[in-house]
Amino acid sequence: MRALQWLGVDNPALVDVGEGQRIHADTAGPFIAMQQAAAEDGVDCQLVSGFRSFERQLAIWNRKWHGERPLYDARGNRLDPERLSDTEKLHAILTFSALPGGSRHHWGSDIDVYDKASVEAWAGSFSLVNDEYCNDGPCAELASWLTEYAGRFGFARPYLDYRGGVARELWHLSHTATARQFESAVNCDTLRAYIEDVEIAGKSVILDDFERLFERYVLNKGR
């Protein structure tokens, strides 16, 4: 596999699944089957995000670094970026947003899902946080359904448990068979070299301890 594929620069295996969303061709069939099965059980399962390019991830990163998008701690509590050091800001971003080139969304195998119908009928402001997928949250029924049935369609939650790296994300699903080929291709040195050549906010602090960040967040091995 060429590095540009897992880096999210060029992924020729993507297909359109509607609403402006693209995912890997090998993931599309299982996702649609899962979506239809959920609908038959009265549960809406729609994509918040499928494939995300390197450039899109870079834009998200830079906006978070510059305080244009909110930052949260691992428990979902909002943080004040003005009170964070650059190192603290780096870890706050990585807790919920991958480093460009290090996102599983680059592969097309991983998706974020939500209960669109329930969210639209909900009085709150949807922020894609775990509270919305638990207890009385608008996506709680969907989260429960996925726990029971997602595995039947080949999907797993790579961020089900917080290990000190990426926060728990009940909305994030990975098509295991498709993701496996990308997981084996991801390489620390290649990603570092790519980051060195792009305009990314906080570059010096990113590169300062890159190997440890790669292990903790990109591979999600935690502390």
From TrEMBL:
Pfam families: VanY. One of its GO terms (biological process) is proteolysis. GO terms for molecular function: carboxypeptidase activity. This is D-alanyl-D-alanine carboxypeptidase. It comes from the Bacteria. Residues 22-176 form the D-alanyl-D-alanine carboxypeptidase-like core domain. It comes from Alteromonas halophila. Keywords: Carboxypeptidase, Hydrolase, Protease. The lineage of its organism: Bacteria, Pseudomonadati, Pseudomonadota, Gammaproteobacteria, Alteromonadales. InterPro entries: DD-CPase-like, VanY-like_core_dom, Zn_M74/Hedgehog-like.
